Automatic annotation (TrEMBL):
It comes from Luteolibacter soli. Pathway: Amino-acid biosynthesis; L-isoleucine biosynthesis; 2-oxobutanoate from L-threonine: step 1/1. This is threonine ammonia-lyase. It is an enzyme of class 4 (lyase). PANTHER family: THREONINE DEHYDRATASE, MITOCHONDRIAL-RELATED. InterPro entries: ACT-like_dom_sf, Ser/Thr_Dehydratase, TD_ACT-like, TD_ACT-like_sf, TrpB-like_PALP, TrpB-like_PALP_sf. Keywords: Amino-acid biosynthesis, Branched-chain amino acid biosynthesis, Isoleucine biosynthesis, Lyase, Pyridoxal phosphate.
């Protein structure tokens, strides 16, 4: 019987066997490593970030292009990709001597564009078009229909799925199985289809859990509708899995191999990225951490089980690493953002810190004076124990402070800190560099500021460095008090490394006053 006539699952299994021989012309097997930072769960991580293109996509692209006929090779190939599949096509194009045109969204990170050029050399042409993966696909398909080039699909092709399935073959041969569960990220579903089919073949009792971002759950929508359906909008934080509509072929496979599907938030993905870094020194792209994010979310139910996850890629823009590292979601501690109403009078801010926020870590502090008699400082607080955070509102109410929860608020995220310069008498702004240890910032305010000036501005965000940096505004009743304070303030002191007055132009921009 010809393989094309077999049922989809049987054909896929056979093609994975043939892919074994093809894909290792282009790259080597990747490691399977134990991650021990999630208590109670035995987690094994398939490190596809250590592959030739720092992502698993080389397997499917190379397997598909290795079976092109001589005529198809001469005509060339065309594809569309958000980045990782493009690198796989580029790698194969160079190795096989095939010309490839690769359509990518205009928003594709430069690191992925550069990698495509690196792997493909003069065998590839990158064409940036549209603002989404779907627009790039439409342009690539139009090219293929007019030029006669072979379209190499990123996921919805049995040869592509079979190539991805070879990573599961390596897992089976590793000797670390069998696994109780595998958490597999899904974009179009090519990797999840190939891997789940192979794992179910050898370990029928394994639980296969598909994982998608909450704003890009196209396979979840397909399973609910009974067929692939397009999403109205797609979140692109996890850009490698940002697919509007699941594949027809991948849906057919996953409809039978998936036991269930999970969705995770961007914050949960950020937390998983941090865990991979701290546990394996692995820098995962957001899509690569989806599986681990779902495991961490369900770790109580997974206690005592052996679980497989795949780090599917590490092609992340350097700037995005910084944004993720500084996001609230990347913290391993529970966090909340609270805005508190306090009287606008000397000492009240310190009283608030001394009483209601004792025992919590202040990760972000935003405040600007906008009213004569009331202040509304905003604090993002963290604690290892969520119960400690839950107790803060009770402490605020007990002391008569009004408060509101602003966790996730847009103005907090964008650090929109208003300040009315017309309410200030004799302000000074200080750049404070202090040692990031409990009590250091509090001691500076207590010993240097209490009773001498009012806080009128505060801009601080924890960066993870040993030195914290804050921009502080102090307002004095008289100019003479301001001068006396500055003359008596040492540039270096107990608990802080440096305290310098901000230059006049900056102060003028903050307050609206003319420099002078």
């Amino acid at each position: 019987m010809e393989r094309e006539g077999l049922p989809p699952d049987r054909r896929l299994r056979q093609e994975i066997l043939f892919a074994r021989e093809r894909v290792y012309r282009f790259g080597q097997p990747t490691p399977l490593e134990h991650l021990s930072l999630v208590p109670g769960v035995e987690i094994w991580v398939k490190r596809e970030d250590l592959s030739p293109i720092k992502a698993y996509k080389w397997r499917g692209a190379c397997n598909r292009m290795a079976v092109l006929t001589p005529e198809e090779k001469a005509t060339g190939v065309v594809t569309a990709s958000a980045g990782n599949h493009a690198q796989g096509v580029a790698l194969a194009a160079r190795a096989l001597g095939i010309q490839a045109r690769i359509y990518m969204p205009r928003s594709t990170p430069r690191v992925k564009q550069s990698a495509v050029r690196h792997h493909g050399g003069d065998r590839v042409e990158i064409i940036l078009t549209g603002d989404s993966y779907d627009e790039a696909v439409a342009a690539a398909l139009d090219d293929a229909s007019t030029s006669g080039a072979t379209y190499v699909h990123a996921y919805d092709d049995v040869q592509v799925m079979a190539g991805q399935g070879t990573l599961a073959d390596e897992v089976v041969l590793s000797g670390h199985g069998p696994f109780d569960a595998a958490y597999l990220q899904i974009g179009g579903g090519g990797m999840a289809a190939g891997v789940s089919e192979w794992l179910k073949t050898y370990w029928p009792e394994i639980e296969i859990v598909g994982v998608e971002g909450v704003g890009q759950a196209s396979m979840k929508a397909a399973l609910e509708a009974g067929k692939p359906v397009p999403l109205d909008q797609v979140d692109i934080f996890c850009d490698g899995t940002a697919v509007r509509k699941a594949g027809t072929n991948t849906f057919e496979i996953l409809n039978s191999t998936l036991d269930r599907i999970e969705t995770v938030t961007n914050a949960e993905v950020s937390r998983a990225i941090r865990t991979l870094w701290e546990g394996l020194r692995c820098v995962s792209e957001p899509s690569g951490a989806l599986g681990l994010a779902a495991v961490m979310k369900n770790r109580e139910q997974l206690a005592g089980k052996r679980v497989l996850v795949v780090v599917s890629g590490a092609n992340i823009d350097f700037l995005q690493i910084g944004l993720i590292a500084q996001s609230e979601g990347s913290s391993q501690s529970a966090s909340r953002t609270l805005r508190v109403r306090i009287p606008e009078r000397p000492g009240t801010m310190l009283e608030l810190l001394d009483t209601c926020f004792e025992g919590v870590n202040i990760a972000d502090f935003q405040y600007g004076k906008v009213h004569e008699s009331e202040a509304w400082p905003a604090f993002t607080i963290t604690a290892e124990d969520a119960a400690v955070l839950d107790a803060v509102p009770e402490k605020l109410q007990a002391r008569g402070f009004q408060w509101e929860d602003l966790t996730g608020a847009v103005d907090i995220a964008f650090r929109a800190i208003p300040l009315r310069g017309d309410l200030l008498a004799s302000p000074v702004f200080l750049r404070l560099d202090f040692y990031e240890r409990p009590g250091a910032l509090h001691d500076f305010l207590d010993k240097r500021v209490r009773g001498r000036a009012n806080l009128c501005y505060f801009n601080y965000r924890q960066s993870g460095e040993r030195i914290g940096r804050a921009l502080i505004g102090l307002d004095f009743a008289e100019e003479s008090q301001r001068r006396e304070f500055l003359e008596s303030l040492p540039e270096h002191g107990d608990g802080y490394r440096s305290c310098k007055q901000v230059d006049s132009p900056t102060s003028a921009r903050l307050t609206g006053h003319s420099p002078g």
